[in-house]
UniProtKB/TrEMBL annotation:
Belongs to the SbcD family. Transmembrane segments: none annotated. Heterodimer of SbcC and SbcD. The gene is sbcD. It comes from Gemmata obscuriglobus. Residues 1-242 form the Calcineurin-like phosphoesterase domain. This is Nuclease SbcCD subunit D. GO terms for biological process: DNA recombination; DNA replication. Keywords: DNA recombination, DNA replication, Endonuclease, Exonuclease, Hydrolase, Nuclease. SbcCD cleaves DNA hairpin structures. These structures can inhibit DNA replication and are intermediates in certain DNA recombination reactions. The complex acts as a 3'->5' double strand exonuclease that can open hairpins. It also has a 5' single-strand endonuclease activity.
């Protein structure tokens, strides 16, 4: 059974002012191409299919895109196994699971052999089996969503913690208990091939510059030392940095695109693994995925830097760029600087500019006193900079309102 492990699609996501829909859909299409080229039986998506920033109409279009891209894969007997991550909306995913259960009400009992050729979404700890399409032997799949109180706590357990630290400790315990219960299920065969997929932070992994829109304090870190001995392959999601954890067959595949500046150096990919009747055949293989360049550009002297940037970045139309700009009043025209940079880097996702005279107290003439600029002057300069790219009529209207409010304060 050939399994393609991927994770952290974040469909419908945004980076600053940039909608990432097209980037991410191209990445999904590349994943589908790998499925076809490698004759994959199971596409295993280890959580965070959707972005929490996705709008309802965007989610609908995302599912429609799935149908188009994976129609051939499913029609020829391929199976998609997915599970929910920390960025997946719990209510939406649970509704999706309920709708899928209505369509196939006999599917869903633990340890059941499920039919191929369809998508399965696990919104809670799930144990199912799939038969190999060639030789007919079953492979056990354990799907563990990101641990949240709704997914893992039972009864009044959610009321028994008084701090985030206590909640995380209870979730670590609940995650381990759920996995232990699945492996103790009467239909679970410890001698048969088994694959675990989990959206979770495993102790000992390398996070990289930062977690993706979640703090260390909010995260749940579980122990995973025993997992390589318990499973033939462990497919992890949640940490975007691709890596092996503890053993060659326990790994994070990483996200399918560079999602923010912290991932600018990551080489994205998916992992191909082959499971035979007696276990894993050989070592997992990484298949690369092209991804969008993302970087920061610092402009210290617009007159010199902008011509240089035109030469250095002639093909940056699709790059994601964070612009940090310094300019000097009287020497540089901010509106021209922003317009020139916009032509070079049309997909800038964030930008910040500062007049060099405002960079520090050493630039202020002591004879002017400690007060510096007055309140009104500061507000007028700030609005002038912030509105430089707005429609002229809209800018004038806002400045007129601000001027009236400032005069009222001054009087």
């Amino acid at each position: 059974m050939r399994i393609l492990h991927t994770a952290d699609w974040h469909l419908g996501d945004r980076l600053g002012r940039i909608d990432r829909t097209d980037d991410l859909r191209r990445a999904v299409e590349r994943v589908a191409a790998h499925c076809k080229e490698q004759n994959v039986d199971v596409l295993l998506v280890a959580g965070d299919l959707f972005s929490e920033l996705a709008r309802p109409d965007g989610l609908r279009e995302t599912i429609r895109h799935w149908q188009e891209v994976f129609r051939e894969f499913l029609e020829t007997g391929g199976t998609i196994l997915t599970l929910t991550g920390n960025h997946d909306n719990e209510n939406f995913c649970q509704t999706l699971v309920s709708a899928m259960s209505l369509a196939s009400p006999t599917i869903g009992r633990p340890g059941e052999v499920v039919p191929p050729g369809r998508l399965y979404l696990a919104a809670e700890p799930t144990f199912l089996r799939l038969e190999d399409r060639t030789d007919g032997f079953p492979v056990q799949f354990v799907l563990m969503p990101f641990p949240t109180p709704h997914r893992f706590f039972r009864g009044d357990a959610a009321l028994k913690y008084g701090s985030p630290e206590e909640k995380n400790a209870l979730l670590v315990s609940a995650w381990a208990d759920a996995l232990r219960e699945i492996r103790a299920h009467p239909k679970y065969d410890p001698t048969a091939p088994a694959v675990l997929s989990a959206h979770v932070h495993i102790h000992g992994s390398t996070v990289g510059p930062s977690l993706f829109r979640i703090t260390i304090e909010e995260d749940v870190v579980v122990e995973g030392a025993d997992l390589p001995q318990q499973f033939d392959y462990v497919a992890l999601g949640h940490i975007h940095k691709p890596q092996v954890v503890g053993a060659p067959h326990m790994r994070y595949c990483g996200s399918i695109e560079r999602m923010d500046l912290g991932e600018q150096g990551d080489q994205k990919g998916v992992v191909l693994v082959d499971i035979g009747r007696t276990g894993r055949n050989g070592e997992p293989e990484v298949l690369s995925l092209p991804s969008t360049p993302i970087y920061e550009v610092v402009v210290l002297d617009p007159a010199q830097d902008i011509p240089r940037l035109r030469e250095e970045f002639p093909d940056a139309q699709n790059d994601l760029v964070n612009l940090q700009i310094r300019y000097t009043s009287g020497k540089d025209q901010l509106e021209d600087v922003l317009r020139d940079l916009d032509r070079i880097f049309p997909r800038w996702y964030a930008r910040d500019w500062q007049e060099t005279g405002a960079l520090g107290p050493t630039l202020v003439n002591p004879a002017e006193g400690a007060g510096g600029k007055g309140f009104g002057e500061t507000v007028r300069e700030y609005l002038g900079q912030e509105l430089v790219q707005h429609d002229e009529g809209e800018r004038d209207a806002i400045l007129k309102i601000a001027e009236g409010l400032l005069k009222e304060l001054e009087n």
